[in-house]
């Protein structure tokens, strides 16, 4: 006996998109424009954010600023630790290189990926997706870039690195003198810019825009 088929969903009304509730995953129709009212889930009553305004130019500008900040954040020393009058300088890449030289290959690679490669890759993907959107690139290219973005977000660990720096300073402050350098302040600004870029990027809204563009072409 063949399994029962799933019920087909009707096409969304004009000016609305089919979304899943962020709280209970209930399927519902939400207006595309924010001036049509803030929708609520009919099952749990949660306020939906699918109709909030979205401009790809905002994450594009923030991503460009973050990429500029990434240059001094990765090149200049993060902090200087002086022990018995002997200063030691630490950089993002230098810390990973020290772990690799000490034989901790897996830890060194994770630090290099999580603090250098993944954040830069994520910013480049945001930049490429926004530029591809404005240049009206083929849908398959945009969809592939968005999938790469989704997989890469879990590898960014800048906040973990910042927490490790704070813990190290607290534990070692009585053994020597610490001095934060220009690279550390650029790193904090990079972390804030990356967070702002990811928040304003809103990949779910991008998928909705792609679907709207496909329907307009059809």
From TrEMBL:
TM spans (from-to): 60-84, 104-131, 152-170, 182-201
Keyword Membrane in annotation: yes
A Pfam family hit: PqiA
Highest taxon listed in the record's lineage: Bacteria
Keywords assigned: Membrane, Transmembrane, Transmembrane helix
Identification of the protein by name: Paraquat-inducible protein A
